[in-house]
Recover the amino acids of this structure.
């Protein structure tokens, strides 16, 4: 990435960190108990699943795409994992089933986008409805309970006082950051989103890279779905409702450009935290839920406008 882009990205990340800290300070002043250990852990738990999904979504958006299906895939993989566990299938196989189903949904969406040239919005919208329908068919429209004791380990256990989903989110974000910044595949992701024509001329198989991005995003949705089902103690077919909106919001607020070519996992982490702190603080301050939705909408618009201003400034300096 050009130096000025890296600099702008860093400045945006620092600004988001500062905004999150200011936001936390304001809520600490108006909402008693906001800074309690219990509430901070509650914030971390509330953003854990979103954070896992946001890693894959960051790669998708950086490549110039979008994936609207992640919430439905979370429900489908959670139901499938819970159903497998309730039938006595070993834990390792349950994890592989959830990851495999998530990977398959992403692979189908990726194939539609990469080879069939279906717009990503349309392809993933179709997967959103299909995966949700499959979740209800597989579960017969009901929650699947009766889980073995080990099923709750991923979603309810704690490591050194840190909840399991939070530890999982941290591991996924660290791995995602390493892949995007330290591997050839990560460089190809940025190249595809930044300048697809130049990427093609450089000999990079754009269709294969695009397909892999969506497939990996689907696998992460499968992991998130299993973690959510573990936390709930059941497979719920209507779980993950509107998660795709929360995830896209976190990624965009974190500085990832909807035009592609720019974004970092660090920014996504802080975008996720910013929205988590905002939602939690407004709840503690007893703000009307409908007003909360308006506030989130305003935050998203501000983030998109800031991205456009930043992009135009970058173009003017080149």
């Amino acid at each position: 990435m050009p130096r000025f882009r890296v600099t702008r990205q860093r400045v945006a990340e620092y600004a988001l960190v500062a905004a999150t800290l200011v936001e936390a300070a304001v809520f600490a002043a108006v909402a008693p108990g906001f800074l309690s250990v219990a509430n901070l852990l509650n914030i971390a738990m509330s953003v854990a699943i979103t954070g896992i999904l946001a890693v894959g979504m960051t790669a998708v958006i950086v490549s110039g795409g979008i994936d609207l299906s992640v919430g439905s895939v979370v429900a489908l993989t959670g139901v499938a994992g819970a159903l497998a566990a309730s039938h006595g299938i070993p834990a390792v196989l349950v994890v592989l089933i959830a990851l495999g189903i998530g990977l398959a949904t992403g692979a189908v969406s990726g194939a539609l986008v990469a080879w069939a040239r279906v717009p990503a919005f349309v392809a993933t919208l179709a997967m959103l409805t299909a995966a949700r329908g499959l979740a209800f068919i597989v579960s017969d429209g009901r929650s699947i309970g009766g889980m073995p004791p080990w099923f709750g380990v991923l979603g309810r256990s704690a490591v050194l006082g840190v909840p399991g989903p939070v530890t999982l989110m941290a591991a996924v974000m660290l791995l995602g950051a390493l892949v995007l910044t330290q591997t050839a595949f990560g460089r190809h992701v940025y190249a595809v989103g930044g300048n697809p024509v130049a990427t093609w001329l450089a000999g990079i198989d754009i269709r294969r890279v695009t397909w892999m991005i969506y497939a990996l995003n689907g696998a992460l949705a499968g992991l998130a779905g299993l973690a959510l089902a573990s936390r709930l103690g059941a497979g719920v077919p209507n779980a993950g409702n509107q998660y795709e909106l929360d995830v896209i919001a976190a990624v965009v607020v974190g500085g990832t450009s909807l035009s592609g070519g720019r974004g970092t996992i660090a920014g996504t982490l802080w975008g996720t935290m910013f929205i988590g702190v905002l939602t939690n603080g407004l709840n503690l301050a007893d703000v009307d839920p409908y007003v909360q939705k308006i506030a989130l909408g305003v935050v998203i618009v501000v983030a998109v406008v800031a991205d456009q201003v930043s992009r135009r400034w970058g173009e003017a300096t080149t």
